[in-house]
Amino acid sequence: MSSRLVNRKGDPQYRRHFLTDNSTFHVERCMGVMQSGTQMVKLKAGSKGLVRLFYLDDHRSCIRWRPSRKSEKAKITIDSLYKVTEGGQSDIFHRHADSSLDPTCCFTVYHGNHMESLDLVTTNAEEARTWITGLRYLMAGISDEDSLTFEEADKNGDGFLNIEEIYQLLHKLNVNLPRRKVKQMFQEADTDDQQGTLTYEEFSVFYKMMSLRRDLFLLMMAYSDRKDHLTTEELANLLRNEQKMANVTPEYVAEIIDKFERCDENKQRGVIGIEGFTSFMRSPTCDIFNPLHHEVNQDMDQPLCNYFIASSHNTYLTGDQLLSHSKTDMYAWVLQSGCRCVEVDCWDGPDGEPMVQHGYTLTSKIPFKSVIATINKYAFINNQYPVILSIENHCSIQQQKKIAQYLREIFGDKLDVRDALSRDSKTLPSPQSLQGKILIKGKSLPAYLSADAEEGEVSDDDSADEIEDDFKLKSSNGNGNHQVESDIRKKLDSLLKESRIGDKEDTDSFSIRALLRATHQGLQKNLRQGSKGVLKKSQSRSLLTTLKQKRHSKSRLSCQSVDKEEDVQETRTRREAGGQFNRGGRKRKTMKLSRDLSNLVVFTNSVASQECLNQGTPGDVLSFSETRAQSLVNHRAEQFLAFNQRQLSRIYPSAYRIDSSNFNPQFYWNVGCQL
Predict the structure, then answer these.
(1) Residue 315's Cα: distance from chain center in Å?
(2) What's phi and psi for 596, nearest 5 deg?
(3) What's the first-to-final CA gap in the chain, in angstroms?
(4) Between 368-378 and 397-411, two packed helices, what is the crossing angle to 10 degrees?
């Protein structure tokens, strides 16, 4: 569902890397400039922008600005920041594309649970660089470990730390040391005439005492014959015996001492003390992770179905599945974090322009063209392996042609997979052979249709209709905010009640009641605020009301049972008689598909999940809801596994996951489901 990067705040390796690139002096200068304040333009949708003074507060814990009607509430905490991007990359900047903004003066701060963006324009590039550097520094959780910790602990600002301030600091840092031990180290570090307090220099000594790792100290003692340092030979022996390293040369050991030893005298003697040794042992050099695995080291020449593929569902959403905003930024976000399959739900929009949105909900819309431009820009920045673009098509023929036009114009050669086509047609191509390519996953016109036909009918009963009827909010004449909010609450309550029935009817299935309860509680937290926010933007539209009641609850709430042989035979007979039928023998829903859009689907043809698992070509992709897939795993695991050995399958989340929670993929990975 909605995806986001892992927040790396507090990652020690990230901190070390950052401090390598930015001197303490430079960062402190940035902090000073930010605390003094910088006049910037805050861009907003539909306005020319607001000139505000932005500044970092004294505690370096939040960004503030003035003037503001919010007064003291006009702030963004550093803890809530997710990412800072340079240049005009966000939705807001794209809307101001005609205003000739200098990209070097633009940056965006993403923050909050719903990835809100603060889009800022500075007077010159240097100001933007200062803020970008400073914010990234703060986000990384960096404190010049002694300097900023000392300032934070010095509550009265007198430049000294007493024992009580030290106790409070250690409590805040979750350092669990006996008070007797802390007091002993405090007294050892307190060497000047002013007893009872630590200066900055004395605090640095105290900090190093506190940071000393007993296990590393004992290890050094064992290999140094109880000296306070290791010689080149002793360090080499330690690396061979403890770290199991091979080919440890004197030159390599000398490099370690030169890089990690902080005492110049020790460097000259060719030895490493406890501080340098601790620094070395805690560095990435000693990570258990194999550094060769930072790069792709697996065989990438196998067929595409032999790999698990990082995937995203309803990629454009920033929060829950009913009320949240849709943003193109989400595509940039997930693609740069490794995602190789993204989803685009296409619907008819105004002025002949297709839109991307989560249909039948209160989520917002974004232009299809903007989504494709964003995907094109960010698809291969961090990863050259192919991107699967899952098209959920709800558009008229005319707008389908516009979709195909944009795909061809914007993606260009990225859609050209002729080289991969010339290989073995019985297997899918490899990720290696598809590097830099975008595969369109969608419906294809049937082969029996005349090549001259510009359109045809295809099945419309797979994941394109993943929102069950009683989840769909349909337009009618509403009577205000309270009506919509009331309708959503009633819908959630009715689903919760019905789920109790489903759980009782099929006790072997996962507890939909528990799932829905979590969803219900999560959505309630921001329902009132979210629904009002959406309604303000949609006064001209008819309000959305509740759904018709659920029918046949068991078939939807519990896992479906294994197909009976007679049902399969009946379906087969109906197919031979002509027409398209679903698993229950009822006539399938169909839709019109444009030849232009169909022609762009090559290796990833979406077919109805009701088809038999032992039929189809390697390019057919089957999509299942997690509930239907669970039934297949429980009852037809061997057949499902065999299918996944030659084709791709996609498992999408239950419609009950309104809070955008994810199912555990391990259950489906076990039988080879890739997406």
Answers:
(1) 9
(2) -60, -45
(3) 13
(4) 20
Percent of the chain with pLDDT over 70: 74
Closest CA to 313 of 611, 623, 90, 590: 623
Nearest to 464 by CA among 324, 592, 291, 297: 592
313 catalytic per annotation = yes
CB atoms within 10 A of CB 205: 17
Say whether pLDDT at 193 is over 70: yes
What is d(CA 253, CA 241) in angstroms, rounded to the nearest whole number? 14
pLDDT at 586: 55
Q: Which of 313, 325, 394, 520 is catalytic?
A: 313
d(CA 276, CA 271): 10
C-alpha 184: how far from chain center: 46
Choosing from 96, 358, 394, 520, which is the catalytic residue?
Answer: 358
Smallest CA-to-CA distance from 545 within 473, 595, 593, 480 is with 473
Instruction: Examine the residue annotation and report whether 358 is marked as an active-site residue of this protein.
Output: yes
For the chain, the farthest-separated pair of C-alpha atoms sits apart, in whole angstroms, at 101
Three-state DSSP class for residue 487: helix
Categorize the per-residue pLDDT at 360 as very low, low, confident or very high, splitting at 50, 70 and 90: confident
Q: Is 21 left (phi over 0), alpha (psi -120 to 50) or beta?
A: alpha
Residue 159 identity (one-letter amino acid): G
Confidence (pTM): 0.65
Which residues are registered as beta bridge partners of 120? Answer: 42, 107
- Distance set, CA 124 to CA 88, 101, 119 (Å): 14, 11, 15
> 425 pLDDT exceeds 50?
yes
